Structure formats: C-alpha cells, structure tokens
UniProtKB/TrEMBL annotation:
Stored Pfam families: CO_deh_flav_C, FAD_binding_5
Molecular functions (GO terms): FAD binding; oxidoreductase activity
The protein's name in its UniProt record: FAD-binding PCMH-type domain-containing protein
InterPro entries: CO_DH_flav_C, CO_DH_flav_C_dom_sf, Diverse_Substr_Oxidored, FAD-bd_PCMH, FAD-bd_PCMH-like_sf, FAD-bd_PCMH_sub2, Mopterin_DH_FAD-bd
Domain spans labelled FAD-binding PCMH-type: 5-180
Length: 296
C-alpha cells in the first residue's frame, strides 16, 4: 500500500482478533497505525499533514465491530459501522436524528460507504461528535485489561490534554435511550456550516438536544459544538441559560449567542479564522433556539 503523492510503502497487517491487533501495535513500538475505512488518513497523507506509517493494522477482519442494534438500554453502534449505514437506521431516526443529520453532511456518498463512525470519533474533530455529545454517548474500548466503557465527554477532555494512549482500540459507540416523557417533546438539532453543503471541512457545527414541556419550558438542555481542528465540546454556559427558560422568549437567542461567543473554542486555519468560526457557532446556536421557538 502506498501513500498518495509519495513512494513510501507500508506493510499491511491483518489481525483476526483484538488481542492480535494490540500485540502488533506494541511489537512495532507504537509506530503502527490502526486503520479501517482510512478515508481521513488518506486525506492527511495526500495533503502531507501526516506521514505514512511503516505498518498499518487493518481492523476490518475482526468480527463483531459493525452494525447498529438496541442493547442493554442503549443504541450500540459498532466502531466499524460505515457512515452510510447510520444515515437511515430506524433506531437512530427514532432516538438520535441529529446524528443522522450530522452523517448526511459528511463528504460524498462514496466516502460514506468507506468511512466509519469509529474513525470519525477517534479523530476528535469529526462532525459526528457534537451530536454524540448531546446524546450523552459512551465509548467502548479494548486494551490489555479487556473491554471498558468511557464517557465521550471524558475521553475528549483527556485527548485534549495530550495524555491519551493510542494503543487502545475503539470497538463501539453507545447512545443511551432516553425514556420519552408524555408531557414533553424533544428537540433534536444539528447544523454544519462549511464552504459548501457537503464534502468540505466544516467551519463550525452545533448540535442541541432538549426537552420542551407543554408550557414551553426547556429542560435537560445539551448544546455542543465543533468544526475544523476544534475538538468537540459542550457549551455549558449556553446550556445553563436555556435550562428552565421558556422557548419562544425573545431574549433567549441573543443571550445564547453571547454565551457561545464567550465559550466556544476554535482554531483558525487556511479556510477560516478562529474569530469567524466562533461567530458562526454562536449564530448557529442562537438560530437553533430561535427556530424552535418560532415553530411553537
């Protein structure tokens, strides 16, 4: 296998189980890279933002790491599930439509037929992450101690600190299924702004989940953002403003805009400045509140 634009050849290793994958990762002193769909890695090699590793550990031959099903009160999404499979699945349509909307805006259909939910997550900047954050997703990992579960929010915090080990293998993403209260309706919102509708790096992404009572009062509010090189993160100041507020209150959208402007963390690059990304995210969050208030 060759990197685009280079003549460096990588050895492709094909483990048959998770233990063998870990053994190979350790045997090559951390130089080997796990790969499945490989779409992000190919893009990085193409634009020379990452080096082609000497070994690639292809996880596609390991059974039990793809598919979407309800399991133990959660939606269980295998890490190797391709993004195309997440676009129309009935469980996601019922409980996590914001995730479906996030997937819809990622790249072209040919890419979604290769790229995996696991790859989008472990990048730490994938467009699925804000939606997964508002749904309180957990990550299921495998390492030398066995399987363990970790909140996505906590993993992103540790990843951002630079303390993360890369030997562990992501095996699944789990979204808890919330019991729907008869006296409230859920809000599911996701929007991405890029240079065009799809197949483009995101300038900013915002996702919102909340419950709206019959009186219009908001509860269980979760707002998250990301985009570009920004690690997805919860926007807790905006959440606190919305919690207990009445949807449709004219003062709420501008207050949310200001809160996001003060908290959203962004990095500038060749496509957009940090300031532009922050303002875009703030506008998206305010729009989510205003649009849902207007529709009541």
């Amino acid at each position: 296998m060759f990197a685009f634009g280079t003549h460096q050849k990588s050895e492709v290793l094909r483990p048959v189980n998770l233990d063998e994958a870990l053994q190979w990762r350790r045997a090559y002193s951390g130089d080997a890279v796990y790969i499945s769909g490989g779409t992000l890695l190919r893009a990085q090699w193409e634009n020379e933002s990452a080096f082609m590793p000497p070994q690639l550990i292809d996880l596609r031959g390991i059974a039990g790491m793809s598919g979407i099903e309800e399991r133990e009160g959660a939606i269980h999404i295998g890490a190797q599930t391709i993004l195309a499979a997440c676009r129309q699945h009935p469980l996601l349509q019922q409980y996590a439509p914001a995730l479906m909307e996030a997937v819809r805006g990622i790249a072209a259909p040919s890419i979604r037929n290769l790229a995996t939910i696991g790859g989008n997550v472990v990048s730490a900047t994938g467009d699925c992450l804000p939606a997964l954050l508002v749904y309180g997703a957990d990550l299921v990992w495998y390492d030398e101690t066995g399987m363990f579960t970790e909140p996505l929010l906590e993993w992103l915090r540790i990843r951002g600190s630079g303390m993360m080990t890369s030997e562990r293998i992501l095996t699944a993403v789990r979204i808890p299924i919330r019991a729907q209260q008869s006296e409230s309706k859920p809000i599911h919102f996701y929007q991405k702004v890029g240079r065009r509708e799809a197949f483009t790096p995101s300038v900013a992404t915002i996702s919102v989940y909340a419950a709206v009572g019959k009186d219009g009062v908001l509860s269980d509010v979760r707002i998250a953002g990301g985009g570009g090189a920004t690690f997805a993160h919860r926007l807790t100041a905006a959440e606190k403003l919305c919690e207990g507020a009445r949807l449709g209150d004219a003062a709420l959208p501008p207050a949310v805009f200001k809160a996001v402007m003060n908290q959203f963390q962004a990095f500038g690059d060749a496509f957009a400045s940090a300031e532009y990304r922050v303002k875009t995210a703030a506008n998206l969050a305010a729009s989510a509140v205003w649009t849902n208030g207007k529709s009541r």
